[in-house]
């Protein structure tokens, strides 16, 4: 009787959901994944909390469930949370713990991928830009200064999500140790394999020391396991479609047994500005999904839903033809769930296959969010940004300073230099990072562009004139050996006709961390008539307007006829646009709009065709190169 009363009291003190949570277990043993003592396949999709407004998290998770998945995987973006040294932010769209809890409420397991390096086509692969200002720092190696910062990050992350591990009743079932480290080992042969392995082991130990006690795993291409695996973590293979080879290589590094998992199964691919948008057929992905299911191979779709690189969060790659390949604002990824959260033919094909193999019921996907179209948004004001900027207080130096030296992470810097004597010839800036519009006394002289390897142009600077160079950071490299070379701005001497231009440089900081306001730019702001707009042709400008809505919904702003810049909607930076394509529209989530008056601010860098209005459309344009 006493024992019965004790249990009655226990039930009264703790909600039944909490008691149920404590029963969850997850293990890797006997070549399988076990959840609560039963063999379970992991049918996962990668979806990143920070690429989706938090108001849409539940909808997107329900979309995943409706496709037949039982797990969601997410990277953790260190630079999203530690915005300045020791300054942490886990609120709003950055509330990782809430994202994980919501997944648990929807019955999903969670795979956490904390890096600290994540790649992900994300600015600097997830590293905070300010690490580059730490004395003696080199990222991603056995470096004391770096490991002190990774330890602080991992410990702070544990404070947020440690209690959400399945060992404590939460939905987190596995944690990744580092990320695609085998790739980095192959790229950095100047570092010994022993040092690489020491570093990898230290990251694994930092996770354990912080309190992460669920199973760990690594993920690499199957031919890169030698450098990427670490003792005590399950090796998984990225992009491996050959099931026989997958099992062979996992057996080799995991005591002759599974479980077998493809931690990145690519239903689409990443996309860069100025390059064709990659597309992968639905039938091909459906066939590969079925092959995995038939052969007891777990998988994680990367990406199942890509979302959007809002603000300045997109990263960049590089190759032999392009010194930087900036990632687009859209992270649609040709994924089964589109950027705006829509069902696609790929979604339907995968869902049909999964339903044939799983024992649980696959629910219908939720309804699509409403979509609206705004035929015309009047841009009533325009501001001359060049004139306004030069009224600001500059930083001065004998030589141009980098963004990092200016203690600025993102956005733009205007570099100016006054000449008392005329000079002409070839202007060369080999250290341009990344895109510059060059002016002389406010008149456009040309464009330099790291993407096209355009680092020089002819220029003529008259007597008593000012050279002005507006430089944009297009996103730090997120993959490859050059991740250690990520300073922005002008990082080398500027020369004209072979002469180094030194002394008298002014630098004006334009981080654009908040929406600029025409009303605060005084006499540099004008009523935006067609005549006034024409006067500012080829000048960098701020356009501003308001529009009134009687209903809200998702929409896509049409920037096909514009040049290059960024857009703020009600103070939210929705990302970069660029006329080169293939992305010609930017996604505006309906939750960032409101009934009544809304405000739009556009920073247009080129302004080759001055504007007085802009419109939105109901369908995105992501595949149109110019």
UniProtKB/TrEMBL annotation:
Main enzyme class: hydrolase
Ranges where the Glycoside hydrolase 35 catalytic domain occurs: 33-356
Every Beta-galactosidase 1-like first all-beta domain range: 400-510
Signal peptide from the UniProt entry: 1-20
Gene3D superfamilies for the chain: Galactose-binding domain-like, Glycosidases
Catalytic activity: Hydrolysis of terminal non-reducing beta-D-galactose residues in beta-D-galactosides
Keyword Cell cycle: no
Keywords (A to Z) from UniProt: Glycosidase, Hydrolase, Signal
Entries under Pfam families matching the protein: BetaGal_ABD_1, BetaGal_gal-bd, Glyco_hydro_35
Domain of life the protein comes from: Bacteria
Domain Beta-galactosidase galactose-binding as annotated: residue spans: 540-598
SUPFAM superfamilies per record: (Trans)glycosidases (SSF51445), Galactose-binding domain-like (SSF49785)
Coiled-coil boundaries: none
EC number: 3.2.1.23
Family to which the UniProt record says this protein belongs: Belongs to the glycosyl hydrolase 35 family.
Protein name per its UniProtKB record: Beta-galactosidase
Species of origin: Bacteroides gallinaceum
Taxonomic classification: Bacteria, Pseudomonadati, Bacteroidota, Bacteroidia, Bacteroidales
């Amino acid at each position: 009787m006493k024992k019965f009363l004790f249990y009655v009291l226990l039930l009264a003190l703790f909600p039944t959901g909490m008691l149920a949570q404590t029963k969850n277990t997850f293990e890797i043993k006997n070549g399988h994944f076990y959840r609560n003592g039963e063999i379970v396949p992991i049918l996962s999709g990668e979806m990143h909390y920070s690429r989706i407004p938090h108001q849409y998290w539940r909808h997107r998770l329900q979309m995943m469930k409706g496709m037949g998945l039982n797990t969601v995987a997410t990277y953790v973006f260190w630079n999203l949370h530690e915005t300045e040294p020791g300054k942490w932010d886990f609120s709003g769209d950055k509330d990782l713990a809430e994202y994980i809890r919501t997944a648990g409420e929807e019955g999903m397991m969670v795979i956490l991928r904390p890096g600290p390096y994540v790649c992900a086509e994300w600015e600097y692969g997830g590293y905070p830009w300010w690490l580059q200002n730490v004395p003696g720092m080199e990222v991603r190696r056995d470096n004391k200064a770096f490991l002190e910062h990774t330890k602080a990050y991992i410990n702070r992350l544990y404070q947020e999500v440690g209690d959400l591990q399945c060992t404590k009743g939460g939905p987190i079932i596995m944690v990744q140790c580092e990320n695609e480290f085998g790739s980095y080992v192959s790229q950095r042969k100047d570092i010994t394999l022993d040092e690489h392995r020491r570093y990898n082991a230290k990251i694994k130990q930092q996770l354990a020391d912080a309190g992460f006690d669920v199973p760990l795993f690594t993920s690499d291409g199957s031919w890169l396991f030698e450098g990427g695996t670490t003792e005590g973590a399950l090796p998984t293979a990225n992009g491996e479609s050959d099931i026989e080879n997958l099992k062979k290589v996992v057996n080799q590094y995991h005591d002759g047994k599974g479980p077998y998992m493809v931690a990145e199964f690519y239903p689409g691919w990443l996309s860069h500005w100025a390059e064709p948008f990659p597309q992968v057929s639905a039938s091909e992905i459906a066939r590969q999904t079925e092959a995995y299911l038939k052969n007891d191979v777990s998988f994680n779709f990367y990406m199942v839903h890509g979302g959007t690189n809002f603000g300045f969060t997109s990263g960049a790659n590089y190759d032999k033809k392009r010194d930087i390949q900036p990632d687009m604002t859209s992270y649609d990824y040709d994924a089964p769930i589109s950027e705006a959260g829509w069902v696609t033919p790929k979604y339907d094909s995968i869902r049909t296959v999964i339903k044939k193999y799983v024992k649980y019921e696959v629910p219908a996907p939720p309804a699509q969010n409403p979509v609206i179209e705004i035929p015309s948004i009047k841009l009533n004001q325009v501001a001359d940004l060049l004139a306004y900027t030069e009224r600001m207080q500059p930083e001065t130096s004998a030589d141009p300073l980098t963004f990092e030296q200016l203690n600025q992470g993102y956005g733009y810097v205007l570099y100016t230099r006054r000449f008392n004597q005329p000079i002409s010839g070839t202007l060369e800036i080999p250290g341009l990072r990344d895109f510059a519009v060059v002016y002389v006394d406010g008149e456009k002289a040309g464009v330099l562009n790291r993407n096209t390897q355009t680092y020089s142009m002819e220029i003529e600077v008259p007597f008593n004139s000012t050279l002005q160079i507006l430089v944009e950071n297009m996103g730090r490299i997120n993959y490859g050996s050059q991740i250690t070379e990520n300073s922005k701005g002008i990082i080398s001497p500027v020369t004209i006709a072979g002469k180094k231009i030194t002394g008298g440089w002014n630098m004006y900081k334009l981080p654009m961390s908040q929406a600029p306001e025409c009303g605060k730019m005084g006499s540099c702001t004008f009523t935006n008539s067609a005549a006034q707009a024409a006067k500012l042709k080829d000048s960098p400008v701020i356009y501003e307007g308001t529009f009134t809505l009687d209903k809200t919904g998702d929409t896509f702003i049409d920037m096909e006829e514009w040049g290059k810049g960024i857009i703020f909607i009600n103070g939210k930076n929705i990302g970069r646009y660029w006329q080169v394509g293939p992305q010609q529209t930017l996604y505006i989530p309906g939750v960032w709009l409101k009934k009544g008056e809304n405000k739009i601010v556009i920073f247009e860098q080129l302004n080759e065709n001055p504007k007085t209005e802009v419109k939105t459309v109901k369908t995105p344009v992501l595949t149109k190169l110019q």
